[in-house]
TrEMBL record:
Membrane topology recorded in Swiss-Prot or TrEMBL: Peripheral membrane protein
InterPro entries: Tim10-like, Tim10-like_dom_sf
GO CC list: mitochondrial inner membrane
All residue ranges annotated as the Tim10-like domain in the record: 19-80
Coiled coil residues, start to end: none
Family matches, as Gene3D superfamilies: Mitochondrial import inner membrane translocase subunit tim13 like domains
GO MF term set: metal ion binding
Organism domain of life: Eukaryota
Name of the protein in its database record: Mitochondrial import inner membrane translocase subunit
Domain notes: The twin CX3C motif contains 4 conserved Cys residues that form 2 disulfide bonds in the mitochondrial intermembrane space.
Biological role: Mitochondrial intermembrane chaperone that participates in the import and insertion of some multi-pass transmembrane proteins into the mitochondrial inner membrane. Also required for the transfer of beta-barrel precursors from the TOM complex to the sorting and assembly machinery (SAM complex) of the outer membrane. Acts as a chaperone-like protein that protects the hydrophobic precursors from aggregation and guide them through the mitochondrial intermembrane space.
Localization, UniProt: Mitochondrion inner membrane
């Protein structure tokens, strides 16, 4: 219920917990995809050395940075679209 009947109703504790759980799932899935994609792209499949080569390490750093940057941009765009439609949890 909203304060004095104005604005949007506040989310319940269960709704907040569900939102946090969903966000954690999204982050875990994003991490899993990033590891898979960057590993395939950057790590030599012959595993000649026990440690990462400098080129592999640099590639992984750049891949992860680009992955997070693109994820951030997509998230911002989705938030704008959700807000424009009047959605969102309104914490």
């Amino acid at each position: 219920m909203s304060f004095l009947g104005f604005g949007k109703p506040q989310p319940t504790s269960a709704e907040r917990i569900s939102a946090v759980e969903n966000e954690l799932k999204v982050v875990a899935e994003m991490h899993s995809r990033m590891v898979k994609i960057c590993t395939l792209k950057c790590i030599d499949k012959t595993y000649r050395e026990g440690e990462l080569a400098k080129g592999e390490s640099v590639c992984l750093d750049r891949c992860a940075a680009k992955f997070f940057e693109s994820h951030q941009k997509i998230s911002e765009q989705l938030q704008k679209e959700t807000a424009a439609r009047g959605g969102g949890m309104g914490f």
